[in-house]
């Protein structure tokens, strides 16, 4: 059996991009590591960081201007004089992504999600968005929403509803997961994502979720996409997980509805701990559970030597803007 | 009336050291800004960062070796061959601090706290500690513990117990504060600090606090000491606040016991919000209340445009180690 991990190991497995100041590019003299800043019109703040190999292979259109000088930049151009910049950006992203899909240059773009992700921190009227499967290629922020559903027994013991992912899933087959979780579509809020995922994944009634689900934190990290993920590797992916808690009565039992979940287990805190340290959870769901443990006093300064590093590392400052200002 | 602040403004007022990579010293060519790394024996990780003006004025003993070359360092020496490094460090700190107090070179050292603070992340057998009033001069981490006491009315409304500091306090007179808070002495845990402060400041029974106080998070920030604080200014002070929640019944009423608290008010969430945005709270207590609001869903992504920046900024990575490894 492999060595048990620590909680900090698990957090670092999710937040696994090197702890360099990504905004101070280029961070290395290595030409393959000096990332390109993705710049939206009239905004000096980089909204993403792109690998040189991706910039080289992308079938750029005239909507973008590429500079190979330092700092290396991919500038999205706005010919509209700023009257509808968000639409201009969305059309430019769609055009170049369609072209890349046709040319079949990136494995990432063969993934099946049909929805768009929102680019966080864009400062225009209207929303900037691009195909979910392309977000990591451009290095823009991705958003997920995760809700931990738990109950208390008569004796007051806290128990957590934990799903096992279907063995047929494209990503993380057979791993344990957050009770309810999903990628947040461009056009919805994290809370609305949780409401429909709670129905689709766990058959939880909408009215109950709307009334009792509580926003409690956000986890931020920067992931480096790994070899074997089925896509490009070495990408710099800033990620946000909006976290919710939902305490339910013992009569509420989540039921799989779509084909993503094999079964739900009602696990004790000790059972969840063991499963975490044996790496049975999907990696970013481990971070969500560790954040839950921190907020509920299960992990604390008296029992965990890495407490402070865990707490700060669960909230890594992102290298991209998260608000318009 | 002055402009109302935003929650993010308040968090930045507490975490007000420039967002530079302090560990990559010197961060500026300005000779007054190139901080000195405080190095403990046989450990390459800086445990503190000291201002050039402080290094120049400190009446160093032979226990320390100062290098003015880059990287500038203050190296604590261990003549014991590592057999009792913690004691060697503690004696060296005491000797130089005593000497500085006698010579009356630093306003900070005239402050009255007689207790020691622990140096976080020291890797030896035994604890490394130094006089609380000297911690910020050496730039080592400081620890506080804060507990928010709240109740729910019959209708389920959340109300928070908020003390006003005595107008006679040396620091932050008349400001609103966390229900129970104090600096964590070297020899105690944050939880033990909360237990005795809950008695001393709010007359809350020890047994009830031990049973029901819940560790819920830690806030980390780096403060730049300000002119007018009664001590040296421009110091780089890494700070940790261990946060606890305590829900009590409506029959529990905190009562001032020592002379630090003028009165306790039972405030609604809206009253607390207003007081925060009018800057009526001691600055780091505002961060504790904002963290409480995040964890209780009062501030969330749907109602706060700066949500993600608030959440990450409440947990700034510290430039000093927080664990022995």
List keywords for this structure.
homodimer; 325 residues; 27% helix; globular; Nudix hydrolase domain-containing protein (chains A, B)
Structure notes:
Chains A, B: It comes from Neoarthrinium moseri. Chains A, B: Pfam families: NUDIX. Chains A, B: This is Nudix hydrolase domain-containing protein. Chains A, B: Residues 142-291 form the Nudix hydrolase domain. 2 copies of one chain form a homodimer. The first copy, chain A, has helices at residues 7-14, 52-57, 85-103, 132-138, 190-202, 206-212, 269-277, 283-295, 307-313; strands spanning 36-39, 48-50, 64-67, 73-76, 116-118, 129-131, 142-152, 158-165, 180-183, 214-224, 236-247, 261-268. By secondary structure, chain A is α+β, with helices and mostly antiparallel strands. The first copy, chain A, has a domain at 7-14 and 143-218 and 241-313: Nucleoside Triphosphate Pyrophosphohydrolase. The longest helix of chain A is centred in the first third of the chain and has 19 residues, at 85-103.
C-alpha-based Rg of chain A, rounded? 21 Å
Q: Main interface pair? A: A-B, 37 and 37 residues
Q: In CATH, what is the homologous superfamily of the domain at 7-14 and 143-218 and 241-313 in chain A? A: Nucleoside Triphosphate Pyrophosphohydrolase
Total count of strands of chain A: 12
Ends apart, CA distance between termini of chain A = 50 Å
Main sheet: strands, sense, barrel of chain A: 6 strands, mixed
Assigned CATH class of the domain at 7-14 and 143-218 and 241-313 in chain A: Alpha Beta
Assign the structural class of chain A, choosing from mainly alpha, mainly beta, alpha/beta, alpha+beta, or little secondary structure: alpha+beta
Under the CATH scheme, the architecture of the domain at 7-14 and 143-218 and 241-313 in chain A is Alpha-Beta Complex
Q: Looking at CATH, which topology of the domain at 7-14 and 143-218 and 241-313 in chain A would you report? A: Nucleoside Triphosphate Pyrophosphohydrolase
- Total helical elements of chain A: 9
Oligomer: homodimer
| Shape call of chain A | globular
Low-confidence stretches of chain A: none
User: Which strand-content bin applies to the residues of chain A?
Assistant: 15-25%
Mean pLDDT of chain A: 93
Pfam families (chains A, B): NUDIX
InterPro entries (chains A, B): NUDIX_hydrolase-like_dom_sf, NUDIX_hydrolase_dom
Domain Nudix hydrolase (chains A, B): 142-291
GO molecular function (chains A, B): 8-oxo-dGDP phosphatase activity
């Amino acid at each position: 059996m492999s060595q048990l991990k620590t909680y900090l190991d698990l957090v670092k497995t999710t937040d696994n991009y090197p702890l360099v100041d990504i905004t101070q590019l280029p961070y290395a003299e290595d030409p393959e590591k000096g990332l390109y800043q993705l710049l939206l019109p009239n905004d000096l703040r980089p909204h993403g960081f792109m690998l040189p190999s991706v910039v080289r292979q992308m079938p750029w259109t005239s909507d973008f201007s590429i500079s190979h000088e330092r700092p290396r930049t991919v500038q999205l151009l706005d010919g509209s004089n700023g009257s509808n910049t968000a639409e201009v950006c969305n059309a430019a992203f769609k055009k170049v992504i369609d072209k890349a899909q046709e040319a079949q240059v990136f494995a990432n773009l063969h993934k099946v999600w049909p929805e768009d992700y929102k680019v966080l921190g864009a400062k225009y009227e209207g929303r900037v968005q691009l195909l979910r499967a392309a977000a990591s290629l451009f290095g823009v922020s991705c958003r997920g929403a995760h809700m931990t559903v738990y109950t208390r027994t008569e004796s007051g013991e806290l128990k957590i509803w934990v799903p096992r992912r279907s063995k047929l899933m494209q990503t993380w087959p057979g791993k344990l997961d957050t009770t309810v979780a999903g990628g947040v579509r461009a056009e919805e809020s994290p809370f609305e994502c949780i409401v429909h995922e709670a129905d689709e994944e766990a058959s939880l009634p909408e009215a109950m979720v709307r009334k009792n689900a509580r926003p409690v934190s956000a986890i931020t990290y920067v992931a480096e996409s790994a070899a074997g993920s089925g896509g490009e590797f070495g990408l710099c992916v800033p990620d946000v997980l909006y976290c919710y808690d939902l305490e339910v009565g013992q009569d509420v039992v989540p039921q799989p509805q779509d084909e993503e979940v094999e079964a739900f287990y009602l696990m004790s805190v000790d059972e969840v701990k063991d499963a975490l340290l044996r790496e049975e959870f999907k990696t970013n769901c481990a971070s969500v559970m560790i954040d839950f443990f921190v907020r509920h006093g299960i992990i604390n300064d008296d029992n965990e030597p890495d407490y402070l590093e865990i707490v700060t590392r669960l909230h890594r400052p992102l290298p991209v803007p998260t608000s318009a200002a």
